[in-house]
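Supplementary notes for students who missed Thursday's class. We covered one full example, reproduced here. Read the sequence, then the structure, then the short commentary at the end.
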Amino acid sequence: MGSIAPRLVPPPPVRRMGVPAADPLLEGLEDNTSVLRIPFEKDLKPGPVGDRVRVIDYDPRAGLYYEPVNLDDPSLLAQEGLAPSESDPRFHQQMVYAVVMETLERFEVALGRRAYFGGPNNRRSIEVFPHGARDANAWYDPQRGHLVFGSFRADRKSAGRNLPGAWVHTCLSHDVVAHEATHALLHGLRPRSLEPTGPDALAFHEAFADLVALLQRFRLPGVVEQAIRRSARLDEVAPLFQIGRQFGEALGMRAALRTAIGSPCEPQKLARTHECHDRGAILLAAVFDAFGTIYRHRTRDLLRIASNGTGVLPAGELAPDLVGRLAEQARKSASHLLTMSIRAVDYCPPLDIGFGDFLRALITADLDLVPDDTRDYRGALIAAFRDRGIYPTGVSCLSEDALRWPAMDGAADITGIDFDKMLFDRPPREAPDADRKREYWREVEKLVRRNAKLFGFDEKRAGEIETRSVQPAWRMLPTGRVRHDLVVQAYQPGGCIEVMKKKLEFEGACTVVIGGDEGPGVRYAISRSTLDAERKARQAEYAADLLAGAPPSARELPWAALGLKHVHAGWWS
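Structure (token representation):
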């Protein structure tokens, strides 16, 4: 008798791993553990070392490597990985791997393509060091493309709820890990974003990293439900919006490092706030003001029903069904805001990103895909940014039509470009071969140079324009259709800015969005013009202030090095 060939069993689509929902000291939750569902890598090696995230657990102070965790061990696969532990380095490795993979997946879903990490030449994978320093900090190193997490001893006199003098590991904070991973991913999307060319540049990096970390928290199973059991008004559950609680208490601050709610709306505060984390906190507060408005809008009918129309809920614990419905609306609100925020980066200029630019990018990206804003997300964002004194330049009013980046409407010369071939002949995430990629880039670069004036460049020096990024994107529309776009970043040298006898590079750049439903073409050109004399003067003034206050070692550095060395992409400064 013949034998029947065994059927191959495909690997599971996700890997389940338990992690702390925020950090080990998040209060107000009966259970601070949540289970992440991240893409399953079938060739994951001990470390964990995978295709996208490589955990290297080397402790430079001790001069040793910790034993790497093997997440493919059958016993760990059967029980959702190692149980959370502050003392087991193997769990620390699992923690950073899971959260970085989770953050990467959120970026790829929102962008509609594979995302890359920043660092030398933008990288497919990133190296993560969970015990990389004995320091009260964690940071993204853009020169090497590393994520480094420090360990430090809690204050012996004022450690909060930490054990005085005990080791605190920043790699155990979901907030910190997601924050640093976002720095790396944002740097991959906008390689010039870490250059301090204006007051908003680094502040935007910090705000965006906090924004992603907090909005991801709302997606964790069980976290929002536990908060709503305390109060249906989420803004009354302050710990849910706190960032780095354990970190702040261990430093003797008696509080979290930052919080997204609770600060008063002071439109004048932005003008007098300069430190990048403090300035970024204003942008973060604006987005979470909008989140609160959206959540209240989505849940008001439920609260009317539950309170018999009074708006005042009865005393006692809420019914489980109501808790579940309210949590669902909170998750949907946070998830949509997270997707909007990440997708908006594709509609930001390649450099000099301002807070007002981010608002315009949010409105444009969402209008592009969701013209019918039934939940008024865009209205909530516009009102929140206005109340925080964040105003974009170059607009006549704060209506959606005015804030949307101007459409090209066929103004660009696209002759000789076969967009159908370039945009629509590959399934999502399938990379073109090297020859086809070079061909696409050459064609796109010709298009940009031919439209140099329209895109804000000096047309007399169009031959110097360099296309540095051509990224495909597959966007799912509410109708179920898929829109195919190309997102292009092009740059042109614009001479130098001379400040304190130092020469700093001045550059123009443009984000070109190609695609559309009415036939392929150039839809938007979001530029920082090489010919903008006011912009050049603003950068010179800001550089003078920055260099005057910088340590002597940093005063010799050009823009790029100044951004990477002096102003550190760290968790805490």
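Commentary. The chain is about 35% helix and 15% strand. The chain has a mean pLDDT of 84. If anything here is unclear, bring it to office hours.
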